[in-house]
Specification:
By secondary structure, the protein is of the alpha/beta class. The protein is built from 13 helices and 13 strands. α10 packs across α11 and α11 packs across α12.
Amino acid sequence: MVFKELIINPGSTSTKLAYYVGDEKIVQENIGHDAAELQRFDGIAEQVPFRLEVVRGFMERNGIDGASLSAVVGRGGLVFGLHTGGYLVNDELCEALVSDELSQPHASNLGGLLAKRLGDDYGIPAYIYDAVTSGELEEVAKITGFPDIERRSFCHVLNSRAMAFRYAREHGKRYEELNLIVAHLGGGVSASVHRHGEIVDSVGDDDGQFSPERAGSVPSLELIDLCYSGKYTKSEMKKKVRGRGGMYAYLGTSDCREIEKRVAEGDKRADLVFQAQAYQIAKTIGLLSIVLKGECDAIILTGGLAYSELLTRRIAEYTSFIAPVCILPGENEMEALAQGGARILGGEEEAKVYHITKKEAVLS
């Protein structure tokens, strides 16, 4: 059976939409929104009617009949306590997507909210798939050394798992048979351990290696001193950590093409910072290999920066002794959402159901 899926991937200033029939992407549009227009909305939930009109306009322009759809699949959002894979969007999940206690406010939370509204309208299931906060961390992996803070799974789950599935398929294996380390290289860099089909540990884009726009982990006492130095406001410090940190802070740009150009022209500082980027990513991969006790089938490098031959080669020079390094570049979010939805519709996976119990997410 050929499934027809509407894919919704909301961002802070855009909405990416696609229509898939089977494995074929029929049409995709990336619709930008004026930041000033979005500022009139106080919260994520208030954006739903506005974004719904955007989705309906996309469907009308492209002749997409809602009644003929098999499902609507939205970006997962930042709900705490989710497992990897797909969830049926029910009322409790919608409640969590707009709750400050159960999730972090983020535009991607709109994916489930929009999918639910459209699914209800057309009498079809609505799903989210591979949310950023999903994973299967063991209790030992959650301990931080600071009882007030518990480690949570937080990485680029959607594309990382999609590339893990692709690697397994191309090597005649099942994803659940393999032990993999996947590093997603983008404006933020994260890495995850995939052990027999579960993400059992991860290093997020704020708590490990620096990246083009993120500072990563830094000496804690010096960071505390800087926070209380009076030099910077709380907002400015957050920008230094996320958005204006990493390679941007050193070189004034987060564009790796520009940085590589400087390296080729003999810029020694650019070369050092770029080498440090590869070095820190490799250290993270080495750290995560401990979780697998050395039994790693492959290291996958993915994301937009994986197009950089210089960066991936430098990472591989450090890490190829652990396992073969496979380069699968690009950010394939829309395809990953469509493939996840198709696996659920085809019976290869069962959609999970979210319930709120004592303000925590649990599986039914």
